Amino acid sequence: MELGISSFGEITPDGVAGKAVNAHARMLELLEEIKLADEVGLDVFALGEHHRPDFLISAPEVILAAAAAMTKNIKLSSAVTVLSSADPVRVYQNFSTLDLISSGRAEILAGRGSFIESFPLFGYNLNDYNTLFTEKLDLLLKINQNEKVSWQGKHRAGIDNLGVYPRAYQSALPVWIAVGGTPGSAIRAGKLNLPMTLAILGGPPDRFVQFAELYRNAAKEAGHDVSQLQLAINTQFYVADNSQQAADEFFPPYQLLMNRVGKERGWSPMTREQYEYSRQSGPLMVGSPQEIIDKILRLHELFGNTRYLAQTVGSNDLSHQKNLRAIELFGTVIAPAVRKALAVKA
User: Fold this and answer.
1) Fewest Cβ atoms nearer than 10 Å: which of 26, 192, 312, 328?
2) Strand pairing of 81-82 and 75-78?
């Protein structure tokens, strides 16, 4: 099982037209985190696209290209690319360029996104939320498999036997499908025989097993080899030297994030009791190294996943040095123990 990290690049908004000091500092920190993840032997680092003042990353592939020059082995992915409001031609070109820079380490994690800011920003109608993604995914997959493409759609001008360049270093870019709480998305990924990433951000993990079952059943019905499917599980994550330290250090930034998003969506403010329940019985991977090892292995028992992505959260309440320590523990303590346990099991 591959083990990696995902990040949205949380920042304190600068609130300025230029001279964005907070964004500059956070960008340098993010590159240092990716470099360290590579050095401690993690398999993948993924950056999520957003178009909000509280998240740094609107162009994952640009940051990943900078990271490619600083790393040697780690795979570099989006988490996610909001394909519904992007142009598939440019998405492919940007990631194929990243693939050339990184000597074949680029991946695309395509999704519809959990926020909607990109739709009005790029001139798309939210009423077309589903059809936009379906159509653009079709075009992206055709571009990925063919040097020259002929294609017609509703939301974008057609293409008549035109080449899309540069081509990737890999024979084809890995294109993963991001799934949150929509069963149809899991079924689509299975039918298309594409790797799937399932984000579990709330509720007991066993409630999400049905999505893995839908994914595999759809692939089987479509005639694909289920044994070759790739499934990633993504949960929020923080590890410290002991359990209480991890719980106390992660609660302030996590509460801040959840309350900020919750205010927009009508959720009640998060309490410490709710946090502890999610840490003990829910999807939160927050604790000591041994607790995280046990939880990752438990996820593997539930899902049979081939990848685990640990989603970090950064803020002024959780220093960059503490996140670096968490990455170090993940790569040097947790990852070797998980790999050994799975090897013994196999």
Assistant:
1) 328
2) unpaired
